[in-house]
Write a structure and sequence with these properties.
This protein is α+β, with helices and mostly antiparallel strands and 652 residues long. Helix content is 31%, strand content 14%. It is built from 22 helices and 18 strands. A 4-stranded antiparallel β-sheet has the order 3-8-9-7. A 4-stranded antiparallel β-sheet has the order 4-5-6-10. Helix 3 packs parallel to helix 11 and helix 10 crosses helix 11.
Length: 652
């Protein structure tokens, strides 16, 4: 039975019967270099287990590596055997492509050696393509610089290329094949495409621009050496919706090419990241860790020729040999992760596909996350123009106003209210001692500009963290006359549900960020606190620990977005008041920014304990590392020396 491509070619020039018989009789393996692609008659292939996940970047790259022997061979035929392209018509672009192909043989003429030759066989992410030379029948339009013949392939869930010998062992799922001719030896090779689920696709193109646009539509390939951490951070910065779920973001091939379900589950597990979290919940350390694990998982799988099992363990490559590298999945497809925790298989994950994870990865309980999302949805609905009047009368006015749609993940069910000017910013400061001592700063031009800036943020519809009621939590929970220890932070957390106005602290039920984990780690080692069940540091504040950020607000998902707007002047005034009006305070200065913030503190009146920042990037790598500094016991000794009660550093 003649294929469509042969029909087009043979209709143009007759082919000798002897050559046709030679083509049909020839069965030579497709080789890569000097070794065969797949060894014939290996019986274990009949019973061989199939890959238990859809092909991802490593699987695709492995197949393309093994198909490089096809480069330099002549494409003589494409035949469709079953599936969509038999039932529903040929692939997009096939007929036009076929018209550009040359006849394989002309009587009394030598066989051309450089026509219809495969020039390259490449992959980007999950996308496979091969290009051919211009052939002997290019379009008649002279000067057509855009002419480029290419064939595009996607594997779908179960697609793979096999040699003729493997095809003959089990031909049930064969969909089409390519027929390739070695013009030097005259031997013919067939490469079959098998696809059990029949989701794979095939397309033919005659346009260089079309191929370029397709490649440009895909994000950086996770296996390419020029895909760097900087590239990954740029992709995140360009994301127009910072609240997009992390799984949806990573599975979008236009963002990152090559990530699929098993790489997704594995990298999130290894990076210790909640699969239900949004992109803007990840701080810089988390994003950096995530990128490194994406690359590590993909490269390990690629080294294993991509044939990973759901339960880890052994695998065999396409030649039937056991590989040298045993790629062990740590979470995906397992009942327990390698740490011994139960693995949860959620079939309806945030990206509408199956996700594998452990409870230890979650930043907050799922029930709390779902309730928060529901609350945010309700707030958005109640903030519609038709309800603005009713909304504005429900509660006191808000400096952020209705359009800001402030999302309070901490369980406060107050709805944002509208106002044109409302109360001024400082109305959230409740402690009279702070109000009196900071009156000059509050009445300054800098503070008025800050108030005006926040009103503009309100008008733009920005979401601001922390919620308005928590902006001055550090001062309200730790009155001026009760302060004993000062800890200086930098920017508030900019992800939903994390911050509540105290430096380094997170709400109950929210997973501790890396810096807070190191703070707790040092306190456990230094003063023997019990391992906490949460990261809320209000108990410290209530004892006289001022947890002061340098900047007190931030726009959602945009770190440092409210820096240099006036907050620095206000918090400088706080440090100045503490230095001048109090004595015997302990300043715990973690990192260079904190040290600069308190550089005017009189060390003859107060005790200054300076270390590196507790961030994993600096906690151990400086001359004064945070970990091992025993800063908590040193602070307590300083307090006792001045007759003050030491701090109970437990997180209660």
């Amino acid at each position: 039975m003649m294929s469509s491509l042969q029909a087009f070619i043979y209709a143009m020039v007759p082919i000798s019967r002897a050559f046709q018989q030679q083509m049909k009789a020839t069965k030579v393996l497709f080789t890569m270099g000097s070794s065969s692609l797949i060894r014939p008659n290996r019986r274990h292939y009949v019973k061989r287990s199939t890959i238990k996940m859809m092909p991802e970047g490593p699987e695709v790259r492995t197949l393309v590596d093994q198909l490089q022997g096809g480069v330099g061979l002549r494409l003589t035929d494409i035949q469709f055997l079953s599936g969509r392209y038999v039932k529903n018509g040929r692939p997009n672009g096939f007929e036009g492509f076929a018209r550009t192909m040359s006849p394989s043989f002309q009587p009394h003429q030598p066989v051309p050696k450089s026509i219809d030759i495969i020039q390259e066989w490449k992959a980007k992410g999950k996308f496979i393509y091969l290009t051919l030379d211009n052939g002997s029948n290019p379009p008649t339009d002279d000067g057509n610089d855009d002419f480029q013949r290419s064939i595009w392939v996607t594997l779908g869930m179960t697609g793979r290329f096999v040699s003729e010998s493997i095809h003959e062992e089990d031909p049930r799922h064969a969909r089409w094949y390519l027929e390739l001719l070695d013009v030097d030896s005259g031997t013919l090779r067939k490469i079959f495409f098998h696809d059990q689920r029949n989701f794979g696709t095939l397309k033919f193109s005659l346009s260089r621009e079309e191929l370029d646009k397709k490649l440009q539509s895909l994000g950086p390939d996770i296996l390419d050496s020029d895909t760097t951490e900087e590239t990954f951070f740029s992709l995140i910065a360009e994301q127009k919706k910072p609240d997009i779920n992390i799984c949806i973001f990573l599975m979008d091939q236009s963002k990152v090419a090559g990530v699929g379900n098993y790489i997704l589950s594995e990298c999130l597990y290894r990076a210790d990241i909640d699969p239900f979290a949004s992109l803007d919940e990840l701080d810089g350390d988390m994003r950096r860790r995530l990128f490194r694990e994406i690359q590590a998982v993909a490269r390990e799988s690629y080294q294993a020729q991509g044939l990973t099992r759901q339960n880890g363990g052994t695998f065999r490559n396409l030649e039937g040999d056991k590989g040298n590298f045993e790629f062990q999945l740590q979470c995906y497809g397992r009942d327990q992760c390698i740490k011994g925790n139960r693995v949860i298989r959620e079939t309806n994950g945030p990206h509408k596909r199956t996700i594998w994870y452990t409870n230890q990865q979650l930043f907050m309980p799922l029930a709390q996350r779902k309730a928060a999302i529901s609350r945010r949805s309700n707030l958005a609905e109640e903030s519609s123009p038709s309800q603005s009047k009713a909304t504005s009368m429900r509660g006191k006015s808000s400096v952020f106003g209705r359009k800001s749609n402030v999302f309070d993940d901490g369980g406060d069910n107050k709805k944002p209210a509208t106002n044109s000017r409302g109360r001024n910013l400082v109305s959230g400061l409740e402690d009279e001692g702070w109000k009196k001592s900071l009156s000059e700063a509050i009445e300054s031009e800098s503070f008025r500009r800050l108030d005006s800036f926040l009103e503009k943020e309100q008008a733009s519809g920005a979401t601001i963290y922390p919620p308005e009621k928590d902006i001055f939590s550090a001062l309200n929970l730790c009155p001026l006359d009760k302060v004993k220890v000062v800890i200086v932070g930098q920017d508030p957390y900019h992800a939903p549900g994390q911050g509540h106005g105290l430096a380094f602290s997170v709400r109950h039920g929210v997973r501790a960020p890396p810096s807070l984990k190191n703070i707790v780690r040092e306190a456990m080692s230094d003063v023997g606190i019990a391992e906490p069940m949460h990261g809320n540091l209000e108990y410290w504040a209530q004892q006289g620990v001022l947890l002061l950020n340098t900047v007190l607000t931030v726009r959602r998902g945009e770190a440092n977005s409210h820096s240099r707007k006036g907050w620095e002047d206000f918090t400088d005034a706080i440090i100045r008041v503490l230095n001048e009006e109090r004595e015997g305070l302990v300043f715990l200065l973690w990192g260079l920014p904190a040290a600069k913030k308190a550089q005017g503190v009189d060390d003859t009146k107060h005790v200054i304990i300076q270390t590196s920042h507790p961030s994993p990037l600096g906690a151990t790598k400086t001359a004064s590392p945070f970990l091992g500094s025993r800063c908590f016991s040193r602070a307590n000794r300083a307090l006792e020396d001045t007759g003050k009660t030491p701090i109970d550093w437990n997180v209660l």
